């Protein structure tokens, strides 16, 4: 069973401002195929609410804060992200939903796959059948 988990990224402190880097297959356990970000989220809105069959991802609160709910079909979990050098690793086959975005927050998402609508499971009941047969 795969579980979502927080990955502590290295922070390079500097009096001129801190720096964090992410390298594929080192800091994240997959090759990075795609990077996207979610921003200007109106108060009270939620994003996600789906799973990927193959896609793995790392979600980083680049700015501000938000909560990520994860569910692998057997256990659900909730993570509060509010630090730009922590990432939430989300394995393939995980339902996830992002909520409680603070004003001006930015969710950076690194993905192991190209965008492919066929990789999505957007219906929770379908996801539960998929996850429990896995
Ligand atoms: P979606 O993944 O459903 O957003 P979220 O999970 O954040 O709620 O994507 C929303 C729309 O954006 C959908 O029409 C597909 C499009 N999209 C792309 O074109 N490329 C991408 O890399 C992503 C993630 C989404």
Quickly give the structural class: mainly beta
Q: pLDDT average, as an integer?
A: 97
Lateral strand order in the biggest sheet? 1-9-6-11-4
Q: What Rg, in angstroms, do the CA atoms define?
A: 15 Å
Listed once per kind, the bound small molecules are:
thymidine-5'-diphosphate
Largest sheet: 5 strands, antiparallel
Q: Helical percent range?
A: under 10%
Number of strands: 12
State the low-pLDDT regions, or none.
Answer: none
Q: What separation lies between the terminal Cα atoms?
A: 9 Å
The run of helices and strands is EEEEEEEEEEEEH
Shape: globular
What's the helix count?
1
Proportion of residues in extended strands: 35-45%
Verbal overview:
The chain has 134 residues and is mostly beta strands. Helix content is 7%, strand content 42%. It has one helix spanning 124-132, and strands at 5-8, 11-12, 19-20, 34-38, 47-52, 57-63, 66-71, 76-81, 86-90, 95-99, 106-111, 120-121. A 5-stranded antiparallel β-sheet has the order 1-9-6-11-4, with no helix packed on it. The chain has a 5-stranded antiparallel β-sheet with strand order 8-7-10-5-12. It has a two-stranded antiparallel ribbon with strand order 2-3. A hairpin with a 4-residue loop joins strand 7 (66-71) and strand 8 (76-81). The longest helix is centred in the last third of the chain and has 9 residues, at 124-132. The relative contact order is 0.29. The model has no long low-confidence stretch (mean pLDDT 97). Thymidine-5'-diphosphate binds at residues 34, 36, 38, 47-48, 50, 115. Residues 34, 36, 38, 47-48, 50, 115 line the site of thymidine-5'-diphosphate.
């Amino acid at each position: 069973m795969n579980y979502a988990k927080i990955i502590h990224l290295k922070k390079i402190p500097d009096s001129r401002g801190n720096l964090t880097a992410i390298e594929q297959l080192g800091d994240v356990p997959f090759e990075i195929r795609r990077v996207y970000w979610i921003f200007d989220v109106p108060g009270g809105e939620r994003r996600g609410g789906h799973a990927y069959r193959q896609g793995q991802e790392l979600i980083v609160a680049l700015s501000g804060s938000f909560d990520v709910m994860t569910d692998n079909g057997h256990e659900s979990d909730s993570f509060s992200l509010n630090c730009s050098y922590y990432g939430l690793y989300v394995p393939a086959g995980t339902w996830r939903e992002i909520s409680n975005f603070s004003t001006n927050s930015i969710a950076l998402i690194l993905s192991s796959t190209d965008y492919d609508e066929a990789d999505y499971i957007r219906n929770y009941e379908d996801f539960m059948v998929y996850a429990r047969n896995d």
